[in-house]
């Protein structure tokens, strides 16, 4: 990562837009400050750390080295903030922009279009995550250096440098696999125990008595059905005799019904003939009576006529009227005689009708009796036929039942065969599961070996990397004037059970002491020199592991607690480091250091209206 420029707006003390162009040449650059707003603060509170540490880190990772993020980076006088950082990495030009309110992260590659990106994608292009970046490139004030971290935090930094999580995960997975295998083996053992229990239960089953009992029941049922056939045959013989009787009875009554119906038809025909005569007599009498009435009306009309016609006014002869009246009267007398004869005939015919009607009634009564006898015989015959049919059907069912019983397989024989088959299957299954159990045991032995094996691989890698780190740090100790001082690291170890014992210890050996002393026991200027040596050593280790050669490094107030000679050694070390690594190293300090050694000096000036950077 070679920085080119950074632009801030609304970010912390930078209210207005400000752009800083990084120098084009590597070297050691001194950054100081001048506070013209609060002059008593001198070089403090000018924005040095904001420009060279916080802005870069926030733009790339969304938080400052001290973990400040989101709205806390926005200047109190504005509503939003943004940082635009341009740099080159691996011959690719990047321009990263991060905005707060609204929250946006964009990137432009090789002056291409500006597109939205994700934090994961950006870190992939940078090649470092937040922790590695803050322990290798930006060394901010008021933050813990590598030596200041707690043991667990030191381990996390190491794990971010080395792919230790691969071996940790492999050991974890081996443990998980071991647990799974042990569970499966327990389940297989339970399966075997269950199978043996089933086999024992089957061995205790004895079906011979049930087989014999079932055969006896079948034989008894068949014998009982055969015995019932004789009773059924007797019933059929009796029913057939009754059927013959009622069949003959039916035929006899049917013949009688036919004969009586013939007589009834003759009598009814005679009755209808007589009745027809009566109707004819009544019609003739009615006609005669009607004609007599009409003649009597005509005679009455003649008697009412005068000497002349009322219509034509012609004279009417008296003799003519008498002649007409006598004619009508004679006709009336003839008709009256006919009515008398008809009356006598009606009496005779009525007597005949009564006699014939009585005969018809008697014949109908006789017919009714014969029909009732016929129906009764027919009903009894039908009942006999139904019962015979039922008996024959029942006999067929019994015969079918016998055939079914004879063809039926003894279920206990089949059950016995199935039990024997189940026993063979259970024995085969037991052998199979035992084989699986043996295979699982082999896998478990191998897996348990790798639980410890993967952890040992991890410890070996850690041991190698710590050896390298010790060399780096001890070299810097010598450069910082701590001649014959030595730092030693110790990290995880395994217990007898194969579990990893967490921890990261830093001990210091100095010429005046016989044994190593924990890092936490040191203080003052020695501590700061040790801290700086540890930070630079870890930086070299991180960058080497990631294969990076950044062109930027920032040290914020590293001279704290150092003597004049210590500061001289610090500047010398950083100067040599800038030259050997071809890197721009910015040393930020509020003190008035000897500026003759630096390749350039930048003064961050805080004014009422803005913040400026003055280059010397």
Describe this structure in words.
- The chain has 616 residues and is α+β, with helices and mostly antiparallel strands.
- It is built from ten helices and 17 strands.
- The protein has helices spanning 48-61, 119-126, 130-134, 151-161, 164-203, 208-303, 318-407, 411-479, 524-546, 564-581; strands spanning 2-9, 18-21, 27-35, 81-89, 92-100, 104-109, 115-116, 138-139, 486-490, 493-494, 500-501, 505-509, 517-518, 552-556, 584-588, 600-606, 611-615.
- The strands form four sheets. Strands 2-1-4-5-6-7 form a six-stranded antiparallel sheet, with helices on one face. Strands 8-14-15-3-16-17 form a six-stranded mixed sheet. Strands 9-12-13 form a three-stranded antiparallel sheet.
- A hairpin with a 7-residue loop joins strand 12 and strand 13.
- It starts with a strand and ends with a strand.
> How are the strands of the largest sheet arranged?
2-1-4-5-6-7
Measured on Cα atoms, how large is the radius of gyration?
Answer: 68 Å
Number of helices: 10
- What separation lies between the terminal Cα atoms? 24 Å
Total beta strands:
17
What low-confidence regions span 5 or more consecutive residues with pLDDT below 50?
none
**Major beta sheet, specifics?**
6 strands, antiparallel
Tell me the strand percentage band.
5-15%
The mean pLDDT is 87
Helix content range: 55-70%
Overall 3D shape? elongated
Look at the helices and sheets and give the structural class: alpha+beta
Element-by-element helix/strand order: EEEHEEEEHHEHHHHHEEEEEHEHEEE
